Amino acid sequence: MKRPTEDSAVRRIRRMNRSREDAVWEERRKACMQALLNRPWIVRDQDPELYHWIREQYQELREWFMEYAGFPLIVTRWLAKLEKTPVVAHPWMGFPEFREPLDYALFTYGLWFLEGKTEMDQFLLTDIVEQVREQMAGQGMSVDWTNYVHRLSMARALKKLKALGVLLALDGDEAEWAQDESRNVLYECSPLARYVLRRFPQDLTQYRSMEELADPILYADTPEGAALRRRHRVYRRFLLEPVVLDRSWNEEDLYYVITQRRSLIEQLGKMLGWEGRRYREGLLFFHPELTSEAELFPTLSAVSDLVLLVAGELRRLMQEESSGIRPESDGSVRISRSTMEHLLIRLKELYKDYWSKEQREAASSELAQRCFAHMEEWGLGEWDGAEHFVIWPVLGRWTAEYAADETYG
User: Distances from the Cα of 385 to the Cαs of 216, 333, 359, 392, in angstroms?
Assistant: First the structure.
C-alpha cells in the first residue's frame, strides 16, 4: 500500500475541514431561513447568535428571498426581519389573541401613536387612548372608553404590542385599566415600533385596487415582469401555506408548478431542508424532522390525533361496499356532519381508553366541529355548503394508530 506524502495528508485534512465548515454553514443558513419565515423578526438582544448568523449570510439570504419570492430582507442594528406578503390571506395568519375587527384597528392606531415617539420615550396609557380616540374620530370612527367592550379590545391590542416588544410596560397593566377606567399604565417606546407594519414599494396613493397591494415589489408591465410575478406567487404560497393542492392554483400558476417542480424541490430542499414529492393531488413539501420554529401537522394537540384516526377509519370504510363512502374522481371524500359524528362515536368506542377525559366527555357534534376546523385550517379540506365537508386526498398520506404501551390521562 502506498503511503501518502505529508503534502497529500495535509490537503486531505484541509478538505475534511472545509467539508465540515460547509456543513455548519448550510445548517446555519437553514436555521436562519426557518426563523425568518416563522417569526415576526429576530431581535439582536433576544437571540444574538441567530442575528449574527443572518448578518453573516445576509447577501445570500437577501438575494434568494428577492429572486424567488420577492420578499425584502431588512437587517438593522436592532433586528432582522423578512417582509412576508401572502398571496392568499387565511384566517390563521392573523393574531389568534384578537377577537374583534376593532382589535386590529386599535392595534394599528397604537402603532400610529408610537410613530410619533422616539426610543425610550415614556408616556401613560391615558395619553395613548385619548390620542387614538381623537384620531379615529377624525377618520369618522368612534370609540368610547367608558364602554367595557371597547376597553377590552384596546387592552388586547396593547398586550399584543407588548408581546411583540414594540411597547414596554414600566408600571401597571392594561388588563387592570380594562376593568377599571381610572387605572393607568406607564409605557416606554421601543425602537422596534417602526418595523411592525409592512413597507410598500410605492406610496399608497399610487395603488388603484386592493389586489395591487398584494404584490411585495413593483413588477414591470412586460412579459419578463409577468413571469417574475408568477414565480414569486408560486414560491410565496409554498413558503407560507401548509399545503397547496393543484386545485388551488390558477391555470397559469399550475403550469409553472408542473413544469418547474424539479427546480422547486431543489431550491426549497437546499435552502430549507424540505422534502418535496409530486402526488396526484399536488406537489407537497414535508419537514424531514421536528422543528421548534414552525408548527407542523400532525400537531401536538389532541385534535390532530382525532383527524388521523378519522382518516384511517375512512380508508377502512371505503373498502366496505355497504358503507356508502366512496372517493370522488379526484380522490377527495365528501361527508356530512352526521357521518363525521357517527365516525367519532365509533372511534370513541374503540379508543376511549386512550382519550383524555375532555375528549371522552365531549359531544360527538363538538368533536366533529373541532375536526372540521382543524382540517380546514391545515388545508386538508373545505366546506361544501353548510352540512357537507370535502376531505382532500392529501390527508390519506398520513396513517396513525395507538401504540400498545401508550397511556393517556
Answer: 34, 15, 27, 16
